[in-house]
Design brief:
The chain is an alpha+beta fold and 157 residues long. The chain has one domain. The protein has 5 helices and 9 strands. The strands form 3 sheets. The protein has a 4-stranded antiparallel β-sheet with strand order 2-1-3-4. A 3-stranded antiparallel β-sheet has the order 8-5-9, with helices on one face. The longest helix has 19 residues. The N and C termini lie far apart (65 Å). The relative contact order is 0.13.
């Protein structure tokens, strides 16, 4: 019985420690601007995305589309930085508005839902949610992070 109690206590402490170190959601200040379009991103909390460099620098965007534009032309938007300098890349799940890892997200292309800069890549944490949204909102495709190319971004202009 004592072994079970000790094992349970150790398990609870381990879980609590893991939760304590989980990164809290990062939110933009009213002064943060998108480096791609210059918009103040805090005005658009439903579409705000961000990336975090390994040195702690955080860069905010008004939507996934501008995040990808930045990533595809880092030399223009962040001279001296490399893709290897980037740690986390976060987008908001459209339904829950919770921050999710962009590299594992599902993006709906060409829907009738527009972001602050017009046509947008709408992010979801699950394929099922992306498929349902795409059906309901006339989506033209569902993409993974690595499938978003410069040509696709050009088509969203």
């Amino acid at each position: 019985m004592l072994k079970i109690a000790v094992s349970t206590a150790v398990l609870l402490c381990t879980v609590a420690a893991g939760l304590a170190f989980a990164a809290p959601p990062v939110k933009p200040s009213p002064r943060d601007k998108c480096p791609v379009c210059g918009m103040f991103v805090a005005k658009y909390p439903d579409f705000t995305t961000h990336l975090e460099y390994r040195d702690g620098t955080v860069v905010f965007f008004d939507g996934s589309k501008d995040l990808f534009r930045y990533l595809h032309d880092l030399k223009k938007y962040a001279p001296g930085r490399k893709l290897a300098d980037i740690g986390r890349i976060m987008v908001d799940d459209y339904y829950s508005l919770k921050q999710i890892d962009a590299r594992s997200a599902w993006f709906v292309l060409g829907s009738d839902v527009y972001g602050p800069m017009g046509k947008e890549l709408v992010a979801f944490s699950t394929k099922a949610d992306a498929e349902g949204f795409s059906r309901d909102h006339l989506g033209k495709g569902i993409l993974r992070f690595r499938e978003v190319t410069s040509a696709i971004l050009k088509g969203l202009e």
